[in-house]
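User: What would this chain look like folded?
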Amino acid sequence: MGTHTNTETNAGLRSQGNALLAEGRIAEATQCYERACNNDPTDSLAWLNQGYGRLVMGEVERASQCLRRALTLDGALTDAHFLLGQIDSGQPEAALVHFEAALVIDPAHAGALQGASRALYMMGRHVQALDHLDRWLAVVPGDFDALQGRAAVLLELGRNEEALAAASQVLASQPDSIDALDHASAACLRLGGFDEGLSLLRHGLAVDPQHAGMHWNRGLALLTLGRLEEGWPEFEWRWQATVLAHARPSFMSTHPAWRGEDLRGKSLLLHAEQGLGDTIQFVRFAPLLAARGARVLLLVPESLRDLCSRMPGCEVFADERALPPFDFHCPMMSVPAVWQMTMQAIAAPLQYLRSDAVKRELWDTRLGRRHGLRIGLVWSGGTLHRNDANRSMSLSTLLPALPPGNQLVSLQKEVRDADRGALTASGILDFSGELRTFDDTAALADCMDVIVSVDTSVAHLAGALGKPLILMLSDVPDWRWMLERGDSPWYPTARLFRQDERSKWHRVIQNVRAALTRLAV
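Assistant: Here's the prediction, encoded as structure tokens.
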């Protein structure tokens, strides 16, 4: 009889708490739930409700304890799993366990589908994130948050047309949605719609003038269009955008950035950022800064240290812990913004990196007697690159571009399993196991008469060495190659061959074969 009375009392306490909760009186509601828990410690719903109240009040640890207690009493409490997932949202692996547990009980729980999709996105499991977003939209058709998430995931998967459609669906009803404007503009730019993309970015920056990601994308678009003077200042927003904000070296907070001050008698740390190709492209500024009187400390990845050590006027480091004191720092890719560099001012040197003479001679001996052209080949880049599906090709796609009677040499450090059969059958010389650093690759590349490459770090290396470079580009290339032109202001020895149709290499292969045939004559 006493148990029956406690149950009725607990029901009343929970009902009273729910009424207070509906009025926004969170603390009072939580007190009711706590009294119910004290009154009957086996009341799983009281523990669940108290956990919710504690969470709303910011008492995260206490909330977690209450919710876990609720689950020990009743493991089928969907909302307890869901709320624990929210508590662990900063730890996506842990959060996903809770959200998926909720979905086992209730596959149509919109909140758990949302939380699971976000956790999967953070973990880089984009295909599964998309599946959860589609399930969410099946439960709540047209949900704006689901469509926003879908646009973000589709961008990561390179499905840009679908990403644009999802973002546009949001903009049709919420034209000032900053996330939708961000996603739609990014999709447009990737699809080559620069006018529309820039228009969306103008709209977005009018809504949120401090949106770093859109400033950065605007900079990339302007640089792609060759509008360098407008583009460089916008490109500087990259350090505030989410992608790079977490990658800032500590010295960027402790040392002043160089903004064009007189460097005579001063030390400047010029440091690498982003990819290896970016470093190879922008390390060209180190000798120029040294010529202005600076003591230049050059910080580069270990794989580039030996190669860069032959640059005049620089002290090269691969570990920031070994750096001596310095006056200023400057990210390599910020030099053009500091100098307000125009297209004419790039004035690229024919060669600014040099290979090791001893290694070069060893490679030359191993390659043996020349017959025809020595052609260095790169057909694919790293698989983790966001645009890899567009910039890379299979070896079998490249082979028709290579006229017979020439010595073919792979400059790839990594050969994909899918290409190994074609590589073995082709007779192309493969030294991938011996290319430990870029110093090894540079020496081998310097033995080539011409290098044929997709847009990878080796293409930049070829340009920096002053080697004749045939560069094969997707129809919407990386910003530095700009649009339409067949040459590059960054690399005077480069010839650019571009797709005329998205993801189609046929015309490029034909043109490369014709160019190589002419060279061999």
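The chain is about 55% helix and 10% strand. If you want, I can go into more detail on any region.
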